[in-house]
Prior knowledge:
Helix content is 29%, strand content 36%. With 375 residues, it is of the alpha+beta class. It is globular, with a radius of gyration of 22 Å. The relative contact order is 0.10.
Amino acid sequence: MMRFAYRQFAILILLLAASFVSVNAQSLVYASNQLEQMAKMMQMTDKLKKLPVGVSLRCDSYNGVPLTVIKKGNVVKHIGYSVFSIKQRERVGETRSNFIERFLLSTDLPFNREKTVEEEMMEEKIAFRSGNLSLLKSFAKDSSLSVDASLVKEKLHDVKWMREGKTVCEIGFPANHELLTGRNMLENDNRLQMDILLMADSVVKGRYSFQKDALKEHEEVFVLSGGSYLSDELLANRYFLKNADGSFSPLCTPIAPRESLANLLSANDIPNNFSLEITLKQYNYREATFSVPLTKWVEYYKEQGCKPYFCVIGQEKSFLDCLLLLRNEDLGCCHVMRLRFDTDLLEKRKGKITVRLNAFVPTSNIKDLYYENKI
């Protein structure tokens, strides 16, 4: 079953969020309800506790098919059939690799299904262009095939396996974050705060060197262009000052508040003690409020594979009203943040930033919402 009936677990989330600092080496947190169910069905909990952090290929088996497990700290991020080698995973990408492996394993597990696997695949728009489920599972014992992957028109993932230039198997599936993560909108909203708080703080003071012509200079500020999205104002730029030794450091000064805020929101290379006071617009017209360190939020969305686009949409005295759009191309969704920032806080690099957040907005909805000024 691709979309599982999720139980309510808001109390669990609050408890985990409150105690995440004291999580010990024997505790496990699962990245989704689906993964937790799968682990229990296979009676793997004790085994998972003993596995090292990172990717564990062929660390166990189910129905005679090798399994791959991914752990980050005490968080179980992935369980699935070992369809991909490490090199193949790098080529295909984590989002696609994890989905295919987890999906294949789920078809063999005793979920209480209301429909057949074939009916569910049709409903979810998962389709084989060549090959089938049985053939795909056999690749867990054959890593000799070459593999390629692409995203067609930002809507459809395509993965194919080849031998001597001939396609042996090919599967397509939509860029739908609920399908690809195994979490529905309700679970995504409920887990968001915990997911952020479980991130490690990894701020490294930035000092960079760039190839010639990589930066454009404007009034002694050097701009690294990251492109735009939806409009010429919504940019993925970063801003630098040149040091005496010829290296570059990210700009962060009250003299240039817009560029400084763009830098703070787009990477963890400026030490700071800012916190985000977030009002999360949730599924089914609910709201939740919580506070997280800015550094953890940046680490979270970077790990998810999002690219940040930033613009200032208004100013009132020392306050900037801003839009930060975090685009996840592989998952087919965006996090949309409206921020209000007091530029006076830049002097000490600490304080509260007020945020209204719409998380996991399907990319297909973003353009209309943006041009109608609804985000």
